[in-house]
Design brief:
Elements lengths: L1 H11 L2 H4 L4 H8 L3 H19 L10 H18 L10 H13 L8 H7 L1 H4 L4 H17 L5 H21 L6 H4 L5 H12 L4
């Protein structure tokens, strides 16, 4: 499981020591930086390939290695294969791991910031009922967080609410349409144009 810990350490850095993510950490998590994509690709593409082939299936047996698998499938895939169909190809596996982990209460055995990313497959789902589950999960994290960290978890909840609204409105995420070869509706095109002009592409 050493490799699983390498993945977790890379993704979270020293957040646990400071309780707050640094600007560099949030840039890795939420930025669109080719250099970050390249670093993740060079360090972890082999792990993603092995995980896709089922060679890391034993990681599903405990909380932390399940988290590492979710990060591989849900986060690293988006960096390694950005703007291609492969960026989303493992979403179903990440979601299965997340739901399975919640059922086994794996999420109760990791830190709050780690739980935030354990739940990301819920937020990335194009199923509105799963999106509702995401909102409930992030509300719980906000309730459990210390006062000095409330802002971080409020942001996660806000993102969850935004994702829910998009899926409720369109039944999917329109910003994936181009990568997935899906035809956008007129309403989706107007939405995407508005988001682009607002700098939230």
């Amino acid at each position: 499981m050493e490799r699983a810990e390498d993945i977790i350490k890379f993704w979270f850095g020293k957040v646990e020591e400071s309780a707050f993510p640094t600007a560099n950490r949030t840039h890795i998590w939420f930025g669109h930086d080719a250099a970050v994509d390249d670093e993740i690709r060079s360090k972890f593409s082999y792990d993603l390939e092995k995980a896709v082939l089922g060679e890391y299936s034993d990681w599903e047996k405990n909380s932390r290695s399940s988290l590492a698998l979710i990060i591989l499938f849900d986060q690293f895939s988006r960096h390694i294969y950005r703007d291609t169909p492969l960026a989303f190809a493992q979403d179903h596996r990440a979601l299965d791991l997340c739901l399975h982990g919640i059922e086994r209460q794996y999420d109760h055995l990791i830190s709050l910031i780690e739980r935030a990313f354990f739940y990301f497959p819920l937020m990335h789902s194009e199923n509105v009922e799963i999106q509702a589950t995401s909102i409930r999960a992030y509300k719980i994290l906000l309730d459990l967080s210390f006062p000095e960290a409330k802002g971080i978890f409020e942001n996660f909840l806000d993102h969850s609410l935004q994702h829910f609204d998009i899926v409720k409105r369109f039944g999917r995420f329109p910003d994936r349409n181009q990568a997935l070869g899906r035809i956008s509706t007129e309403e989706e095109i107007k939405y995407l144009e508005k988001e682009y002009l607002q700098g939230d592409k």
